[in-house]
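[Discussion] Sanity-checking designs against the backbone

I'm trying to build intuition for which residues belong where. Below is a structure token string of 163 positions. I'd appreciate it if someone posts a full sequence so I can compare it with mine line by line.
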């Protein structure tokens, strides 16, 4: 875990361009993904209105570099940790790994209500990537490893706070 000034974040419009290719399948399907999450300038303005941020990660071992199931389980665990932190720090703005996981159904599948109103705005977690935040640069600024060895995956979350 690391603490940084919010001004240490690096924003990259190229990340939102990547979102527009719908590589993850969530473009225009989630309140926390483009275009619903707002422009990079809108998000940057909101994020930089906070003074500092806490960065935390979870690292997960994989069977091999193609262990998609292991990656999904790791992301699911990371989302649960992020959710617990949000419960304990309700006056914060939180951005996690990938799309929001606030609307997991009983089958552990994601089912955002977008474009209908979000029924759980208090559970909504923004996407670091969809905010245009460069996670590689974030890891460098925080002194946290982005790559933690062969057959591992590391997920990041930032918790923004006002002082």
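Best answer:
Here's mine. Compare freely.
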């Amino acid at each position: 875990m690391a603490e940084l000034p919010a001004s240490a974040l690096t924003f990259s419009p190229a990340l939102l361009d990547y979102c527009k290719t719908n590589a993850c399948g969530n473009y225009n399907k989630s309140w926390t993904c483009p275009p619903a999450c707002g422009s990079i300038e809108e998000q940057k303005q909101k994020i930089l209105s906070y003074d500092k941020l806490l960065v935390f990660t979870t690292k997960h071992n994989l069977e091999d570099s193609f262990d998609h199931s292991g990656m999904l389980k790791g992301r699911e665990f990371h989302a649960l940790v992020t959710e617990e932190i949000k419960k304990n720090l309700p006056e914060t703005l939180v951005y996690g790994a990938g799309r929001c996981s606030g609307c997991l159904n009983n089958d552990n599948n994601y089912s955002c209500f977008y474009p209908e109103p979000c029924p759980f705005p208090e559970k909504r977690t923004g996407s670091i990537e969809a905010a245009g935040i460069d996670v590689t640069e974030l890891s460098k600024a925080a002194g946290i490893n982005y790559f933690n060895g062969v057959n591992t995956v590391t997920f990041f979350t930032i918790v923004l706070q006002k002082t």
